[in-house]
Amino acid sequence: MKILATVAVIMTMAGAAIAGDNGIIRKEAAASVTETVDQLVSAMEGAGLNIFARVDHGAGAASIGDDVGASQLLIFGNPKVGTPAIKDDPVSGLFLPLKVLVYEDGTGKTMIAYEDPTEMLTRLGGVSEDAPYLAVMTGALAKFTGAVAQ
């Protein structure tokens, strides 16, 4: 019983982030999908990051008469951080810039999902686990998504 309580405390302290075996990190957001993405954009632009695209999957589905619920993909980055990864392994460009998906799940909760940069890039073979840019990417994702998570 003490072990379960300890795990619960650790999960709460971690911002309720849930990482699956596939390297996807999920957090519950405090606001709607649109509000959450707006907050992310504002914070990222304020920190000097480039917002390359905001893809509205929900609107795309609606345009063909279908419904996937509210879902937006934010594509962002900083060439000073991403370029060294691409130099280490050109295939990193397939995964960069970074992406965060904000969506409404089946229960109506707003969820944030992103892939762990270390898992994502080190599996390519040319990126070392101790590459300094991985810590920057990981820290930025945790910081920005943590600020809008519950």
Automatic annotation (TrEMBL):
<keyword id="KW-0732">Signal</keyword>
<dbReference type="InterPro" id="IPR035923">
    <property type="entry name" value="TT1751-like_sf"/>
</dbReference>
<dbReference type="Pfam" id="PF03625">
    <property type="entry name" value="DUF302"/>
</dbReference>
<feature type="signal peptide">
    <location>
        <begin position="1"/>
        <end position="19"/>
    </location>
</feature>
<protein>
    <submittedName>
        <fullName>DUF302 domain-containing protein</fullName>
    </submittedName>
</protein>
<feature type="domain" description="DUF302">
    <location>
        <begin position="55"/>
        <end position="117"/>
    </location>
</feature>
<dbReference type="InterPro" id="IPR005180">
    <property type="entry name" value="DUF302"/>
</dbReference>
